[in-house]
Design goal:
The protein is an alpha/beta fold. Helix content is 39%, strand content 22%. The longest helix is centred in the first third of the chain and has 19 residues.
Length: 462
């Protein structure tokens, strides 16, 4: 069993021993640390926090523990109940709240849950703030409120509808055009809260929706990470239903993947590429994704006259660089769309609405749209090293060998070759180097990965 503490929150498996899993004690401890951080930082009494959860089985238990811990600190809680990560992010500034907590382990299996922590903008905390919360948790430095100063609980279950309204009111979302197209889609929401909000959005946009695993009971029917190897059922059903395409979201609805009308995956990396192509055609500008995302976004950005920037891996890093470079669209290659005109967070709901508009305007099949973009293929591998090996020194040797190429050391070592790239990242928790490659064919991407595995082993002398 596992408990992982990081600057973005805490996640772990349900059950087992304290400090080794996400037990009720651990949930209370980290909720108290977050609430204490807000009280110390803001220096005021009237603090308000928005909370919401996905549909996983442990959600109601963790939700009650977190909400009542905040109330015990004297903090008022706006409870969205069953919700999504982007919905909570949208709600925080609309409620003029001081922060937010999303109870979700995202794409992790059902035995996992997590506390994801937000600031008053509805964005993930900075590294410095996250580190401070971990210090408070380790010290156990909490001061709870007396009986006359307890916080209040306000239930507001309208925010999925509000979120949809905010999306449909965006200038680049054309509901009338989508209605005219009379699309039919299949939705796999892995029996979580996406099963509520995605069909509602589609209904508002005049799209016929065939539901697959849209009962929000937390019993995930397959691995909830939206990857091809987990999605055979929707790939088959799209063809059987003669649907225009399929939509897949993860349990907290911040990752988005599409299935083409022929039952083939559109490609998780190409979710962002397609939506960026649409946004840039209307509003040319800069884009951002992380270093491990497809080069196709760079190509599309250049086509529209913009500049592409690559950030370190992690949503908070993408957002920081998007703000710095005034990017009009950005995100991560795992199907995470960040559209600043709505909010700075990965959001499948705005992604679906923009993709539908793009497709309606293009008047082409989803497979044809995919074929219109540069063809790249990725390979993801890792090499395990012994604890005695200095991983940083190994990566430094790689950097030196390829100094004549275009090299980035923002996050590990990324080497851009003319027709391919490789990104080497070390794990923060174990002696592992992750190897991401991309090239013009799967064989070339795999071959590049094999080559760098061999080179890393040679540098590490293993």
């Amino acid at each position: 069993m596992t408990l992982i503490k990081s600057i973005s929150g805490i996640r772990g498996t349900i059950g087992g021993a304290i400090d080794d899993n996400l037990t009720p004690i651990d949930a209370v401890k980290f909720a108290a640390a977050y609430g204490t951080f807000l009280k110390k930082t803001l220096g005021k009494e009237d603090i308000k926090v928005v909370i919401g959860r996905d549909a996983r089985i442990s959600g109601p238990m963790i939700h009650a523990l977190v909400a009542n811990t905040l109330i015990g600190l004297g903090i008022d809680v706006i409870d969205l109940g069953l919700s999504t990560t982007p919905t909570v992010e949208v709600a925080v500034p609309l409620e003029k709240a001081d922060g937010g907590i999303i109870l979700t382990a995202s794409h992790n299996p059902k035995q996992w849950n997590a506390l994801k922590l937000l600031n008053d903008k509805g964005e993930f905390l900075s590294g410095a703030d996250g580190a401070e919360i971990l210090k408070i948790a380790d010290a156990g430095d909490y001061q709870f409120a007396d009986v006359d100063s307890l916080g209040t609980l306000t239930v507001n279950d309208s925010y999925m509808d509000i979120h949809i309204d905010e999306v449909l009111n965006l200038p680049l979302v054309n509901v009338d055009l989508v209605k005219e197209a009379k699309f039919k889609v299949v939705v796999d929401a892995v029996n979580s809260s996406g099963g509520i909000i995605v069909p509602k959005l589609l209904e508002e946009m005049g799209v016929e929706c065939v539901k697959l695993y849209c009962t929000p009971d937390g019993h995930f029917p397959h691995n909830p990470e939206p990857l091809k190897e987990h999605l055979s059922e929707i790939m088959k059903l799209v063809v059987e239903e003669k649907a225009d395409f399929g939509i897949v979201v993860d349990p907290d609805v911040d990752r988005l993947a599409f299935v083409s009308e022929n039952g083939e995956m559109f490609g998780e990396e190409y979710t962002l590429v397609a939506i960026a192509d649409y946004i840039l055609s209307k509003n040319p500008g800069n884009t951002v994704s992380n270093l491990s995302s497809s080069r196709a976004l760079r190509d599309v950005t250049l086509k529209h006259g913009g500049t592409y920037f690559a950030s370190a891996v992690g949503e908070v890093n993408v957002v920081e660089l998007m703000k710095k470079q005034n990017a009009v669209i950005g995100g991560e290659g795992n199907g995470g769309i960040i559209y600043p005109d709505l909010h700075y967070g990965r959001d499948s709901i705005v992604g679906i609405a923009l993709f539908l508009t793009h497709l309606a305007e293009k008047k082409m099949k989803v497979s044809e749209l995919r074929d219109s973009y540069p063809a790249y293929f990725m390979s993801k591998n890792k090499i395990e090293l012994t604890p005695s090996i200095n991983v940083d020194a190994v990566l430094k040797q790689v950097e030196g060998k390829y100094q004549s190429e275009e090299v980035s050391t923002v996050d590990g070592v990324k080497i851009d070759f003319e027709n391919s790239w490789v990104h080497l990242r070390k794990s923060n928790t174990e002696p592992i180097i992750r190897i991401y490659t991309e090239a013009g064919s799967q064989a070339a991407a795999d071959e590049l990965a094999i080559r760098f595995v061999s080179e890393l082993k040679a540098f590490a002398r293993i």
